[in-house]
Amino acid sequence: MGLIVQKFGGTSVGSPERILNVAACVKEETERGNNVVVVVSAMGKSTDHLVSLAKEISAQPNKREMDMLLSTGEQVTISLLSMALNQQGLNAVSFTGWQAGIVTEPVHGNARISNINTEAIQTQIAAGKVVIVAGFQGITEDGEITTLGRGGSDTTAVALAAALKADKCDIYTDVTGVFTTDPRYVKAARKLLSISYDEMLELANLGAGVLHPRAVEFAKNYQVRLEVRSSMEKTEGTIIEGEATMEQNLVVRGVAFEDEITRVTVLGLTNSLTSLSTIFTTLAENHLNVDIIIQSTTEGGTANLSFSIHTNDLLETLKVLEDNKEVLGYDQLDAENKLAKVSIVGSGMVSNPGVAAKMFEILAANNIQIKMVSTSEIKVSAVVEEKHMLGAVEALHAAFELGE
Ligand code: ASP
Ligand code: MG
């Protein structure tokens, strides 16, 4: 008898009918002779709805109370799914994060799981029950409710699969798997049969919304066998595992993209040994996330520095830099909005020189100017104007032969 962790996202549990459909899917798994632990998200867009309720009360709601509020979304789903399973003759029990023993660090809004006390779950499994756990939430050592960051139910599921040493973790969602690029925007997008943890991690971090990046990190660290598959269609999904076993010879496996990127440029920065560390420490202390960084020195001995951020963080970033102008020592700030990041990912790149060159050639041939570049062993990202984003994705997807 195996143990399977199944996770169902918001769309998959978006209505009573869909919850009944999920119950049938859980039942099938038990009929295959497996023990099942189920992790669910909040129904449909209910987390967004809770966020907007809070915004109507306060522009900057207290983070502890925000977690208190958002954690209720998943609690609705676990109880309804448990009822649905009981209705279908299965023995089920629902657990909130704390009942499931999910302990997190004491951070509100984006907590990391520090450990899971699986005893309560194990006891219920041994009693023959299906255990349904609320995703996205945990509890601190001091008994405070925390949440794991938007999209965090994936992480709950993978962390539970690791802690319970489950045979597999199935992530059921509203698409049929992981695609070479987002099928909603690119017709030629093709479903991948398998992908490696590292490739998936890059894709998730570079804007592919299909999996929470921290869930992939967990899966990689604990070697959890993951499959992303559809809750509506009975088709094979995408397996995420140690090495991409199939299609391995492909240099590029996927194209990811992300809009709402802004480039900030700091002109005339005093070129001292510590100027970079001072700037980025100041930004980090204000929880501002910086992505690509480019520095160039001028003839006068000062430096110009550009970095990319999410457009939402622009006002705050400019304010922090202006407030610290004296200490940081620069002449002028400049910002360019309406940019996007387009990235190609594939573990075959490590051993294939010329992939970046080919990417730049393709963009140039399509008259797309590159504003910034960053690379790792298995990805190349280029920042371009937002209006060129989808054109760039289509062109790269075709040139690297990722389509059907
Ligand atoms: N309900 C949470 C969200 O919408 C967590 C999740 O769905 O994974 O972000
Ligand atoms: Mg999700």
List the helices and strands and how they pair.
Layout: E1 3-8, H1 16-31, E2 35-40, H2 46-57, H3 63-87, E3 92-95, E4 102-104, E5 113-116, H4 119-126, E6 130-134, E7 137-139, E8 145-147, H5 153-163, E9 168-173, E10 194-196, H6 197-205, H7 213-222, E11 226-230, E12 238-241, E13 254-269, H8 275-285, E14 293-297, E15 303-310, H9 314-323, H10 325-328, E16 332-345, H11 355-365, E17 372-376, E18 379-385, H12 389-399
Parallel strand pairs: 1-2, 1-9, 2-6, 3-6, 9-11, 10-12
Antiparallel strand pairs: 4-5, 7-8, 11-12, 13-15, 13-16, 14-15, 16-18, 17-18
Helix pairs in contact: 1-3, 2-3, 5-7, 6-7
Bound molecules: aspartic acid (ASP) and magnesium ion.
Residues 10, 41-42, 47, 73, 135-136, 150-153 line the site of aspartic acid.
Mean pLDDT: 94
* CATH fold field value of the domain at 3-174: Carbamate kinase
H and E string: EHEHHEEEHEEEHEEHHEEEHEEHHEHEEH
CATH class of the domain at 3-174: Alpha Beta
Q: Biggest β-sheet, characterized?
A: 8 strands, mixed
Give the CATH H-level superfamily of the domain at 3-174: Acetylglutamate kinase-like
Strand content: 25-35%
Under the CATH scheme, which architecture of the domain at 3-174 would be assigned?
Answer: 3-Layer(aba) Sandwich
Q: Which stretches are low in confidence, meaning pLDDT under 50 for 5 or more residues running? A: none
Rounded to an integer in angstroms, the radius of gyration calculated over CA atoms is 23 Å
Gap between N and C termini, in Å? Answer: 38 Å
What best-fitting shape do the alpha-carbon axes yield? globular
Bound heterogens, unique: aspartic acid, magnesium ion
**Secondary structure tally: strands:** 18
Question: What class do helices, strands and sheet pairing give?
Answer: alpha/beta
Query: Helix share of residues?
Result: 25-40%
Distinct helical segment count: 12
Strand order, sheet with most strands: 3-6-2-1-9-11-12-10
